[in-house]
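User: Can you recover a sequence for this backbone? Please restate the input before giving your answer.

Assistant: Of course. Working from this structure:
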């Protein structure tokens, strides 16, 4: 087989050495939408749980994800692939499970990204109505959709700079609101919310699931491993730093709300969905309510851009390895951005927004909450599967990694994430606010299970019908070499695994 031409090589390669630790942090932190989690997620958690142990829930999940990230980032030192967890599962558990994971990952990330447009649209609608401009929510959602779509085709470092500005302002406002809450205690500083007795019962599973969703994005530095400088260090630093920073923000901010309202009153106060902004208005002045909501818009827009980039790179990775349409693996000659995958993600998002607008569905409940929460369940399952893959990968060869990174931490990660997955599924109805036995909480796990089975079936088809493609699954930029070796019946190791 002839070597690819220089032009075609450029069209299947991402940019190299573009992102340092801080740039990777910008992608991962903005994907987590800290302000959205604090202003919306934390308040919902108080209402759902009927308890004050939300800060403790964040402590538990932060430790769980840190354990997962020890082995996850150790594996990232040996595998660079824009498909991230898809590639890790393929290399750890096998190609067929890898394709199954890819189908779940692409669907879950895509759904999570699109769900954000519902919150953005309804928030923008409320803000502009105060100025006398009354427009449907989907007009604002489509405006953000266009912006994200355009930025998604630009060079990755440009995206990082845009996210850096938005993230800096967002975190500054969260810190300001939290400090203000601590400065205006209802009953003094209480540590009751960190007590084990503050979080328990059936609601604990729903709280832990929501807490995990609040951290989603922490894993994204591995997605940009091919574009990172000194990836063996920067990816691990950015991933672990993201978990640490988010943990501090979430624990402090949720604790501050309890302090400002009082242990006995915070659950009742959570009936106000704008509780965070209401407190800011009372303490700092009414203008801060508007400022906070404007920054909520920028926070959600930044998260949509970050998840757009993540989804596009998963699609790019699958296209490059010819697991799906090969044209998804094309990049821009000028920017090395995964343009084909980015445009595809934009098209899918636009179709969903048009469908929601035509059917008149609720953007907050049916798009943001239901679709976003459902995608969170899929991603928790993906994290658990990846944790098992990490453990299996290092069981075959520790590759000079420490026993802690290759064995102990991965084992603990599988145990804790398995527990979180179990609690999330059995208490999913509580999370959605519907009756036990309702169709939706049963349907979501079934749909993701069906997706995984379809992906596995496609993997088996590739194994039989296209063995050269099957051989390259999970090998990223080296996939063409592995595939060429398969065609020439050369041992894979000789092709440069």
């Amino acid at each position: 087989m002839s070597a690819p031409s220089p032009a075609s090589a450029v069209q299947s390669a991402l940019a190299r050495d573009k992102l340092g630790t801080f740039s990777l942090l910008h992608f991962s932190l903005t994907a987590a939408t800290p302000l959205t989690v604090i202003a919306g997620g934390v308040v919902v958690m108080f209402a759902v749980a009927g308890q004050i142990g939300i800060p403790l829930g964040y402590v538990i999940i932060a430790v769980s994800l840190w354990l997962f990230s020890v082995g996850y980032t150790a594996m990232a030192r040996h595998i660079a692939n824009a498909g991230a967890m898809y590639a890790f599962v393929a290399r750890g558990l096998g190609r067929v499970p890898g394709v199954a994971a890819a189908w779940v990952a692409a669907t879950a990330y895509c759904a999570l990204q699109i769900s954000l447009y519902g919150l953005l649209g309804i928030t923008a609608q409320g803000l502009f109505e105060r100025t006398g401009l009354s427009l449907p929510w989907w007009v604002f959602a489509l405006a953000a959709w266009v912006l994200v779509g355009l930025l998604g085709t630009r060079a990755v470092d440009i995206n990082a700079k845009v996210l850096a500005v938005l993230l800096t302002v967002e975190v500054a406002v969260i810190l300001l609101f939290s400090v203000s809450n601590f400065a205006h205690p209802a009953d003094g500083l209480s540590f009751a919310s960190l007590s084990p007795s503050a979080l328990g019962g059936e609601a604990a599973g729903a709280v832990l699931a929501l807490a995990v969703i609040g951290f989603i994005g922490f894993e994204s530095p591995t997605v940009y491993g091919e574009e990172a400088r000194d990836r063996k260090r920067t990816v691990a630093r950015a991933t672990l730093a993201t978990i640490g920073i988010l943990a501090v923000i979430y624990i402090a901010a949720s604790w501050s709300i309890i302090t400002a309202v009082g242990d006995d009153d915070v659950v009742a106060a959570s009936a106000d969905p704008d509780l965070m902004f209401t407190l800011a208005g009372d303490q700092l002045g009414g203008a801060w309510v508007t400022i906070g909501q404007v920054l909520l818009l920028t926070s959600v827009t930044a998260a949509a851009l970050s998840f757009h980039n993540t989804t596009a790179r998963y699609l790019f990775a699958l296209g490059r390895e010819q697991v799906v349409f090969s044209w998804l693996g094309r990049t821009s000659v000028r920017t090395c951005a995964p343009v084909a995958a980015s445009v595809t993600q934009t098209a899918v998002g636009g179709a969903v927004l048009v469908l929601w607008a035509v059917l008149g569905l609720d953007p907050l409940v049916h798009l943001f909450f239901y679709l976003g929460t459902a995608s969170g369940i899929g991603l928790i399952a993906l994290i658990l599967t990846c944790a098992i893959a990490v453990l299996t990968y290092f069981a075959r060869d520790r590759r000079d990694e420490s026993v802690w990174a290759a064995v102990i931490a991965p084992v603990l990660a599988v145990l804790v994430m398995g527990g979180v997955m179990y609690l999330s599924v059995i208490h999913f109805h509580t999370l959605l606010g519907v009756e036990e036995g309702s169709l939706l909480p049963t349907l979501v796990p079934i749909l993701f299970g069906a997706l995984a089975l379809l992906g596995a079936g496609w993997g088996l088809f590739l194994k039989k019908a296209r063995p050269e493609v099957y051989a390259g699954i999970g090998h990223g930029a080296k996939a063409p070499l592995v595939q060429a070796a398969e065609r020439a019946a050369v041992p894979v190791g000789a092709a440069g695994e």
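That completes the design. Residues 1-10 have pLDDT under 50 and may be disordered.
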